[in-house]
Specification:
Rossmann fold; binds cytidine-5'-triphosphate; elongated; alpha/beta; 8-stranded mixed beta sheet; 5-stranded parallel beta sheet; 399 residues
């Protein structure tokens, strides 16, 4: 693969020499584009020797071959390592006052940055805003690691090790096992309004659904994430160019958004917690004790969204439902899961145990995945990202 490694002016540049070696040893064709400042840390002959290509910092060299855009156009991946606070700010602003800047603007290839700076500079709101801008544009960020920094300080800001950066690069270059697939994932919990200040809701944070969307995008799928009342903090994990987010509030809105999206997807993952009932009427005015009405709110059942999607599925479409249970023991949990999978007519049912202190609002999860004939086809526990990985692997096996 054709990789451009941009090097900006930080002491971690010496570690990038090893990164370039790892990449060339891995069979990649690497062109190094340092900034002038970077050359104060590691000289031009070193970059030419490790990459076995001529190296320049200027847009005025090799003009006949329009090097200032040709490098970016030909690149299949651009890595910026180290990426200083200043270079990250320049990338966020789209500045192109040197060869690295023009190369980054002229590319449509994935971009990976490995920040390196002092902890204070990393934490500064300006740097954080710039990193958020880059992430929004689909730039992948690896690190920074927490550790010893130049000058004896320590904290977040240390450039990730070359092996880790090379691994992240490899993940970006290899097509994921979900590439070419369109998927829709629901996340969060619905809220059924009672009056302008109250609703019937549940404790689902949307973390597991968001992690499922992020994992699917990372593995190459085109993702629609239907998010029911998911906070901005949680949704930040789903910032990815291949993820489209549709925000909904009530079960009816969620049902409509899922039906619309499912019409053109290969896989439906229904991770949202849907309110089983909604108030028959929603009051335009706040219900008060003197007016009454709060003690006897009349409820009506919401339609089962995932069961309807399963009944009307497109040929070959895979449908996955979730269940959060509070069983006496594991046998009862699996029994309930098997019954629910049958009743809803879905391919897989992912069940997890919830309680006052587990499942909801947590960053960790533990699940069993129940498939055809009630067989447990996968189990997973750990971070919600790790659990998402195992669930997609189980779904992938079905195809
Ligand atoms: N679900 C749905 N529409 C509903 C209720 C639930 O699509 N109106 C989906 C959920 O998103 C989840 C699965 O069905 O994927 C199981 O949800 P759960 O609330 O456990 O199912 P219920 O059928 O409500 O079962 P229970 O009898 O345990 O309440």
């Amino acid at each position: 693969m054709n990789i451009v490694v941009g090097v900006t002016g930080g002491i971690a540049a010496y570690k990038t020499v090893h990164l370039v070696r790892l990449l060339t040893k891995g069979g990649h064709d690497v062109t190094v584009v340092p900034t002038d400042d970077a050359l104060r840390f590691v000289g031009l002959p070193t970059w030419e020797a490790v990459s076995r290509h001529p190296v320049t910092t200027s847009v005025h060299d090799d003009v006949a071959r329009v090097r200032h855009v040709a490098l970016g156009q030909a690149a299949e991946l651009i890595i910026v390592a180290p990426a200083t606070a200043n270079s990250i700010a320049k990338m966020a602003a789209g500045l192109a006052d040197d060869l690295l800047g023009t190369t980054l603007l002229a590319t449509e290839a994935p971009v990976l940055v490995a920040p390196a700076m002092h902890a204070e500079m990393w934490r500064h709101p300006a740097t954080q805003a710039n990193i958020a801008t880059l992430r929004d544009r689909g730039v992948q960020v690896v690190g920074p690691a927490d550790g010893e920094l130049a000058g004896g300080d320590s904290g977040p800001g240390r450039m990730s090790e070359p092996e880790e950066i090379a691994q992240a690069a490899q993940a970006l270059l290899s097509p994921g096992d979900l590439s070419g697939l369109r998927v829709v994932v629901s996340a969060g919990g619905t809220r059924e309004p009672i009056d302008p200040v109250r609703f019937l809701g549940n404790r689902s944070s949307g973390r597991q659904g968001t992690a499922l969307a992020a994992e699917a995008a990372a593995r190459g799928a085109a993702v629609t994430l239907v998010a029911a009342n998911v906070s901005g903090d949680v949704l930040a994990a789903a910032r990815h160019p291949s993820i489209r987010i549709v925000k909904v509030g009530t079960a009816q809105e969620l049902g409509q958004a899922m039906t619309d999206a499912a019409a053109s997807t290969d896989i439906v993952v229904m991770a949202a917690a849907v309110a089983d009932y909604r108030p028959v009427t929603t009051s335009d005015r706040k219900l008060t004790k003197d007016v009454g009405g709060l003690a006897g709110i009349e409820l009506i059942e919401n339609p089962d969204i995932v069961a309807a999607l399963a009944r009307g599925r497109r040929p070959g479409q895979i449908i996955v439902a979730f269940a959060a249970e509070t069983p006496e023991d594991q046998a009862e949990m699996l029994e309930r899961a098997r019954g629910k999978r049958e009743r809803k007519g879905v391919d897989l049912l992912v069940v997890n145990e919830v309680g006052w202190d587990r499942g909801f609002e947590s960053t960790q999860n533990a699940v069993h995945v129940v498939g055809a004939e009630g067989a447990v086809v996968a189990t997973a526990s750990g971070s919600k990202a790790a659990v998402a990985g195992a669930i997609w692997t189980a779904i992938r096996r079905l195809r």
